[in-house]
Amino acid sequence: MVVSEEGRLLILEDPSDEELSRVKDHDGPVIIVLRKLGNVNVQGKHPMNIYILRSPSNEELEALKAQLMARRVTTKEVAVEGPISRRELLMGRVTKVVEKNIPTYFENACRARFGCGECVNACPANAISIVNNRVTINESACIECGLCVSRCPTGALAMVGADDNEYVALLNKLNNVRGIRRITFTCPLNTRESRDGEYIYRVPCIDSVSPEWVAMALAKSLEVGVECPDQSCKLGGADYAKGLINAFTESFKLSITEDGALSMIGGEEVGEGMIYMGIRRNDYIKALTRLRPRTTGVANELLKIFSVHVDDVKCSFCGVCFAKCPERAFDVGRDGNKTVLKLNNLKCIGCGYCARLCPEKAITVDRAKEFPMSDSTDVVYDEVITCKMCGRPFDTRRHIMATKVRLGIKGDPEWLYLCPDCRRYYTAKRMLENALGMKGVKSYI
């Protein structure tokens, strides 16, 4: 019978054959709850749109509903080469189509225009390219592995089952669902039932599980499992799962359960009631900050943590890095009579935009080898220069010296130490004096 139809989510319990016929034509995810029936045969639906639960607990069902109600992407029909069936011909199709889980692109979250190309570098099928600063996906070549989704530092790509929106909805729901203590990521090939207190999170492929997701669950004191059911997986899911587990055990003091899951056992509870917002890097920073007391000091390269080095000798303190960084990783503060350029390594996504814009070529960006132990680091100090006419702070010593060199200014002209407002007044005054032939006028400084 039909239990409910909530938005695009259809929920069936012990469905009859007639009710199952609705599944194929339903535009959205379907939950089938089996309590009396042993199994059902569902065909013609992408596996990421069918969720079969055998005698689920109320907690498991409520969590799954919260996840799927937040789904914002869909599978697509993609034209492929090959003969068409009679049914397709009668439907008026002249090309063969298959339903594929193609990544959806959110341009507003993408940093390709700043130089990020993580998705392009990750794709094993060369199905992704960047054209006019936008990500372009070759749908026919896409193999639905989700590596581009997991590598993206900002969540600009999403797939059915691999979407920050879905995942955050689940984690926030678990604040009110106390019976679930573990999240296990696995793919549709794994048909085992969930164990007591476990939530099986099905993703298109293990490759689509990002380190952000693992950190966010651990920060809520949940155990995290990453299971690839096929050790010979051609997409490398099994190897990626091992690498992801190793990355976290190398970087944090965590326990490993008998079945290979990451666990927070052996320490204080970290953040059970945390609320995430669905903005990937912001949520990741929140999780890593909560996990910082457990760090070993090592930053495994899979964790997407970057090191930005600013050459103290070359830096002119022009402020381009601070003004142009798309993630606002740089900040400027005061320390007594000095100005300080600060850096939050956790905010950096490694796009290298600051290094390319730096006029002094004083910045280099690399993968971090050490975990940042504070929210921000002071990278450059400089003396604050105050206007010699009005006394207002307006520039730094480094920037003034760099300006002199860049413009070929000789000597130490008095106007160089005036703020923009006073400089305009000073220039107008001098022009008037010269026009009137006035001589012997005292300096205004």
UniProtKB/TrEMBL annotation:
Highest taxon above the source species: Archaea
Gene3D superfamilies linked: 3.30.70.20
Example GO molecular function: metal ion binding
Pfam families per the UniProt record, alphabetical: Fer4_10, Fer4_7
InterPro entries: 4Fe4S_Fe-S-bd, 4Fe4S_Fe_S_CS, PSI_iron-sulfur_center
PROSITE patterns per the UniProt record, alphabetical: 4FE4S_FER_1, 4FE4S_FER_2
Record key words, sorted: 4Fe-4S, Iron, Iron-sulfur, Metal-binding
Residue span, 4Fe-4S ferredoxin-type domain: 101-132, 133-162, 306-335, 339-368
PANTHER family the UniProt entry points to: PHOTOSYSTEM I IRON-SULFUR CENTER, PHOTOSYSTEM I IRON-SULFUR CENTER-RELATED
The name this protein goes by in its record: 4Fe-4S ferredoxin iron-sulfur binding domain protein
Naturally occurring in which organism (per UniProt): Vulcanisaeta distributa (strain DSM 14429 / JCM 11212 / NBRC 100878 / IC-017)
